[in-house]
Amino acid sequence: MKKLNVGIIGYGFMGRTHSNAFAQVNHFFDVPYQPVLNTICARNLERAKGFAAKWGYQSVETDWRKVVASPQIDLVDIASPNDTHAEIAVAAAQAGKMVMCEKPLGRNAAEAEAMVRAVESAGVANMVWYNYRRVPAVMLAKQLIDEGRLGRVFHYRAKFLQDWTISADLPQGGEGLWRLDLSVAGSGVTGDLLAHCIDTAMWLNGGIAEVSAITETFIKNRKHNLTGQVEPVGIDDASLFLARFDNGSLATFEATRYARGHKALYTLEINGEHASIFWDLHDLHRLQYFDHNDEGRLRGWRSVHITDSDHPYMKHWWVPGLQIGYEHTFIHQAADFLSAAGEGKSAAPTFRDALLTDRVTDAVLASAKNRSWQTVAGQKEAAC
Amino acid sequence: MKKLNVGIIGYGFMGRTHSNAFAQVNHFFDVPYQPVLNTICARNLERAKGFAAKWGYQSVETDWRKVVASPQIDLVDIASPNDTHAEIAVAAAQAGKMVMCEKPLGRNAAEAEAMVRAVESAGVANMVWYNYRRVPAVMLAKQLIDEGRLGRVFHYRAKFLQDWTISADLPQGGEGLWRLDLSVAGSGVTGDLLAHCIDTAMWLNGGIAEVSAITETFIKNRKHNLTGQVEPVGIDDASLFLARFDNGSLATFEATRYARGHKALYTLEINGEHASIFWDLHDLHRLQYFDHNDEGRLRGWRSVHITDSDHPYMKHWWVPGLQIGYEHTFIHQAADFLSAAGEGKSAAPTFRDALLTDRVTDAVLASAKNRSWQTVAGQKEAAC
Amino acid sequence: MKKLNVGIIGYGFMGRTHSNAFAQVNHFFDVPYQPVLNTICARNLERAKGFAAKWGYQSVETDWRKVVASPQIDLVDIASPNDTHAEIAVAAAQAGKMVMCEKPLGRNAAEAEAMVRAVESAGVANMVWYNYRRVPAVMLAKQLIDEGRLGRVFHYRAKFLQDWTISADLPQGGEGLWRLDLSVAGSGVTGDLLAHCIDTAMWLNGGIAEVSAITETFIKNRKHNLTGQVEPVGIDDASLFLARFDNGSLATFEATRYARGHKALYTLEINGEHASIFWDLHDLHRLQYFDHNDEGRLRGWRSVHITDSDHPYMKHWWVPGLQIGYEHTFIHQAADFLSAAGEGKSAAPTFRDALLTDRVTDAVLASAKNRSWQTVAGQKEAAC
Amino acid sequence: MKKLNVGIIGYGFMGRTHSNAFAQVNHFFDVPYQPVLNTICARNLERAKGFAAKWGYQSVETDWRKVVASPQIDLVDIASPNDTHAEIAVAAAQAGKMVMCEKPLGRNAAEAEAMVRAVESAGVANMVWYNYRRVPAVMLAKQLIDEGRLGRVFHYRAKFLQDWTISADLPQGGEGLWRLDLSVAGSGVTGDLLAHCIDTAMWLNGGIAEVSAITETFIKNRKHNLTGQVEPVGIDDASLFLARFDNGSLATFEATRYARGHKALYTLEINGEHASIFWDLHDLHRLQYFDHNDEGRLRGWRSVHITDSDHPYMKHWWVPGLQIGYEHTFIHQAADFLSAAGEGKSAAPTFRDALLTDRVTDAVLASAKNRSWQTVAGQKEAAC
């Protein structure tokens, strides 16, 4: 098995999930590469050293340019805040490295387009960590749709509900809170949460043609941790939109950090002519499935416990009845990337796939601003 | 449509459910009889008058013997406490009346046997109000079993959990509390709650061969409302038993009034070779169904919302998606009784059916007392 | 108790639910009136006679004008298709009758305004059968909100999902299918289903300020049962909208008859600063409640089984743990109407309350047509 | 951090879960030891080499005596079939090694007693992998009980339902199927599944005083993979018992591999005077909690999503809302063992704790055989 030297940028929440994926993937999956935790790069040297000790990184760096330039590194994995994605990814691609990037790809489609151009010009394997595609239940949903079980789709419904920013005392910006800082994050829940919903939706149900959105910032001013000042909040706290897909189905999408009682409730539902599917992240190991072909008086939503060996990815884990958790989705994604990379390919969602999501989030924000329906820049056009 | 004059004994909780069934049955079911609320009989004249006014009974009586003797009365319905069942039922049968009796039939099998002898000798239509058989979801379960969908049955599980007697301040005996008085009720939860579980179980899964039981009285002394004295509590507060059915399946049964958080949680589950069924009274309009014949990766418990016109009884009610409630089970039972009576027959469970349940509860109490396995007196023997 | 002679127009689904409410209300509620089922009026004389026999109506009529004109009639209850509501209601009010009307009040706000003018000029008691307000769980939600438990509200979410018109073979128009006929119904799911969601929403969360909507007719042509011809379908099969309430909260609303697997899934959720509430019609006897004031590690959505005597309306029914069903909501509404009428008052929602809902549905349809945000005509203006 | 050299015996299902625990524990927990995957020992050399490559074991062995004797090894972890536990554990303890043993400790209490004597004589740190104690939701249940929130306990209910042996074509014995071989496993579901239920139960609710049990072998003969012959099946396929705890509460316990529709449904429920708790393994990241101290009309079972930082173990994982899975319980147990070992102590459940479970399972099997109530050998006596 070939070694693949990984240089990761960022030691936050996503630095941990990615590191875990690299550490675990060979324990459970037969893939052509063995990732080696070569370098962790982050601004705070002391904390980076601690992170390296915990995960076994061989070296520590504070300047990402050195990671990108290092001949030892095969793969650059970007797990740092959104405002760093584009610059690092472009440089890494130009240096001929494989590139993985945490979502969203760019803070907007313009950044994402530059990133797509870079990896496609360089011809390097790339992938964006929209990890929820690799939930076994969601992957099973994809299989069912691809097999034509739903028939014509009428409705799509997705929401991502959190409640962690309701307190007016929560500061914005700085360590651990950059998601509330518009300049770093690019947007609020639109890029953070809706982007997940949109990525899954287009993968399952095709392109989104047009949107009508509304956004709100419920708490208008918060103390900024970097300046120490109370400053206007720039991000959207909540973002809701109606959509029409290319296939004619209608949709509601909603994301918020003000839904008391929900921590990370990402739910999706698809209603087709013959069958319907529902899934939620709070019980990610279940798929709800309704099949109209069932005998009439015995039709009902099936609560499928996705733990059997014939469920996607599950033969690699334990025995039927025993559930997996959140971080496994990253391990699955690492496994798929390494398998693809073994054949010189990228894994989905590629940078180009993720660009499409940025175009929808751009349209959502524009629609909310303009109070009008907004057409989404098409998937098929030569974008960049 | 022929009129059927009803004389009901008892204006308590069950007096209300039965009266409602008689009042409603013709609104929703085409049956050969129209029940007429002729006479309400109860000890307290003033309260009986109030009950009569509310439900439209034409006359009020305080002596059940007059009801039984009245030539106006076609049907005697016994909704009074358990210690009155046998005497009234025997007299009513001897007077040639149709007889309906609230469960349990007798306080013990000896009483029940006398009642069976009386109705069978007189040849009068009879029925015991084990109403849960007429929950549409439970009736559907019966249909599925009769169609052979479960295959060989391995396990049966039933429990009936309440929590209304946990407080030590609750008195025993007297109006509204006779269920805590051994002399009136005959037993505690064994006859009150387990009897329901046993009736349904034998109907769905056949005879019970043997039992090993344990009972407990958690609060040993309570004030008695009739005497005003603190007296030892005679009833069983909780009653649990293991059982082997005639078909070889194993079972656990449990009833208690000390299960904090449950008001009337009657649940049953049957595990067969090919399929399993689960139902609970707290959401009585749903049946949980698992079919092993479903495609492997899509197997899951189906939550069937029992509101469609092809579900038992449901075409008589509203439209799909709209649930019915508790009292409808009595209306269904009245409809089935009246249909059967139109053909000169009894409706299940007949007195004889209910005798079998009394034999099981007798065996349960004996087993708990003797701390030994107890064989249940067989279904097929000439009992009385 | 005073008799109240009821003349009902219509013997369809709603004719049954209203008749049942009048037949049952005195069995369970102490109210100052006893409704008498005086007259059933419908176009088909034979069917009307059958309906009268089943429910005990004393007389049958085929011309609603005679009912309105009859000095015997105290209350006119309109349970006929939407296109008849305005004319009957106005005439009944002018004749000095109490008037109850099935929802929606008018096919549009213009009709509804005329109806409001009529009942207010005549000073007659009036009410619209938006029955879901009287689900005990929903009434409890109202109490919690009125007590200030939610604090500032951020989000409201409602949907009403059905699947009964997915088949392209289903005809439109005529007996039992008038809800698919634009000229009779006024709109599709907007007036039929969304109107329920909107009525409850404004009752719970205040006025709706503005909406952005999308509608769709998935099956463009259907055979019309009255003409025998295949004709364009005029109604909306699905209707979705975003809304901003007067209190600043954001909302998604959706109704459809193309959501496979759902029969009558009306759900609502409210997220407040301190607490959240969720309810769905498929299990109408439960309220989901999340209280942020609970101790941190024990916070969770409570599944409250609404069957206790301290829950709204429930002391009138059975004992804790035993659920009620759909039709009880109409009985509750009848009880509230009769109580109010006893004091010479109307019961909510009055015609004026229901007019506000028609204004929102008008705005929804206009927004969908114009592809623009639409301001809702305000609640406080002198409307008519 | 000190290195702790691990020699593991067995590469089956439990070999994987233990290896994963050792590989992961330092990534998420600060413990005084770093486990080093030193040696994997198993009978099949080729497969052992494959296992070593996958998990990074430094050496491979086929004779467990060499592992026990090796001066390099600090900790012997027994993950091999039940019939090997006692001999290995005793030898390892005598060699002064720390010892971890997969459950059940012995095939019976006699074996377990020898093992307790060995570790206690040698004074070595020891632990048995009853991993379900370390489910965060179960640990939270323990905290609530210890805080006195339940008050007097009335009822305990546990079951462990599987369905993987229903087919008569399934062979018994040999690789992957030793759990069906009486001589290797010691018993069927009693030692395999009930043992888990009993361990948790005594930890949460104290000692079990007496039991009445029934067992069944549904498929009487199966082909044995080692002999190639059809042979009588010696194990119990299902095992049910009633119990009385030392604290006076009553219980039902049940385990089976014939419950169609359930893969690994371990559920437990405790009903106390003031509160109740329910948990199930199929959704292990949730705890159902009912608190009678809640305001009356808002009482309901809370579905607590155990993903917050104030939930046991969860601050070591991700962010609120994101669930963990099955294998995490082993990582928690490894962390607790290593913490305890750092202080020269054992972690619960120790060998002595696990001996108590073997005594209950012995009593269950004896009760089923003798058809009588069986007293459990007490916890406090000098056992060995």
Characterize the structure shown:
The structure is a homotetramer of 384-residue chains. Chain A is globular and about 65 Å long. The model of chain A has no long low-confidence stretch (mean pLDDT 96). Chain A is built from 10 helices and 17 strands. In chain A, the strands form 3 sheets. Chain A has a 9-stranded mixed beta sheet. In chain A, strands 3-2-1-4-5-6 form a 6-stranded parallel beta sheet, sandwiched between helices. Chain A is of the alpha/beta class and 384 residues long. Chains in contact: A-B, A-C, A-D, B-C, B-D, C-D. The interface between A and C is large, with 40 and 40 residues.
Strand content of chain A: 25-35%
The separation of the N and C termini of chain A measures 36 Å
Shape of chain A: globular
Mean pLDDT of chain A: 96
Strand order of the largest sheet of chain A: 16-15-14-13-7-12-11-8-17
Question: What is the number of helical segments of chain A per DSSP (H or I, 4+ residues)?
Answer: 10
Radius of gyration of chain A using CA atoms only: 21 Å
**Assembly status:** homotetramer
Note the main attributes of this structure.
17 strands, globular, 9-stranded mixed β-sheet, alpha/beta, homotetramer, 384 residues, 25% strand
